[in-house]
Amino acid sequence: TEQRSEGSTPVEFNLETIGWLSGASKEERQAAANLIGFIMMFVAKYRLAANLHHDTTEASYTELQRQNEALKASEARYRELSEQLQDKVDEQVRVIQKSQQELYESARLRSVGQLAAGVAHEINNPIGFISSNLRVARDYLEDLREMVPASPANQELLDDFEDLLTESMDGTSRVAGIVSDLKTFSSIDQADYSVCNINELMQSAIHLVQTEYHHNLKITERLDQLPPVTGPPSRLSQTFFNLLDNAAQALRDSDRDPANGRILIQSGIDGERIQVIIQDNGCGIAEADRAQIFDAFFTTRPVGSGTGLGLTVARDTLRAHQGNL
Fold first, then answer.
1. Which segments of the protein form a coiled coil according to its record (predicted)?
2. pTM of the predicted structure, to 2 decimals
3. How would residue 188 be classed by pLDDT, with cut points 50, 70 and 90?
């Protein structure tokens, strides 16, 4: 009951009277009041503990979520930094490998250049003697024609001897050309410099290669007006000749009809640099050979048809002028 009556017992909770019990004996009412108070106190404690647990659990879960998100962000940033570091390491490895390769190439070419200079020097003098003696022998042959009695046998012998002299002189000319290439290869930076016109040097190289191939080449020229440059004219002209000679060889080795072979030569200004483009529609370079085309003495031509120095000399000549091939 909510009101006090005669013979009732109060029910208390937290020192406050919340109701009254009546009926039964006084001892029974007091026992019941104590039990109700105990139950209410127990329920209150349970609710307090439950609420506290709920609040703590909810706060812990929220904090756990926050920490988990922070951890994920940290891991993502770590992966990003790790990838960036790996990219930088890979780039540095490539730079180091490239530098090592360039150093190796430089040392190797220097050694080959020294060897080439020595070989050229040792061969040059004997070839000079042989060439001179062959020219004298040809003069003697003319004298012999006048001195030896005319007969079919004598004529055949003299003609055969003249053929032998001609072949020998062609051979010595070829050896002299190889010696010249070797000397050029071993002294790229030692040529005389002067002001020269790239287009004029190209025209000179075109004339030489046309003569070499008996004017059977169809060459198209698109040469823009160019400023003069300072350099060794003979080396630059030789560079253009080597490139044109390679183009002519590619046309010769191609399966296409020779009448359809074309070489296109263009010159112009690209920014602050002079650009020369030489194109042909010949057989091209095999994929397996491309990594070696600038190696000294590497050639894809038959034995006796090339020295393997043409592109090497061309590249090194252009490098000496801060250019590239």
1. 54-102
2. 0.44
3. very low
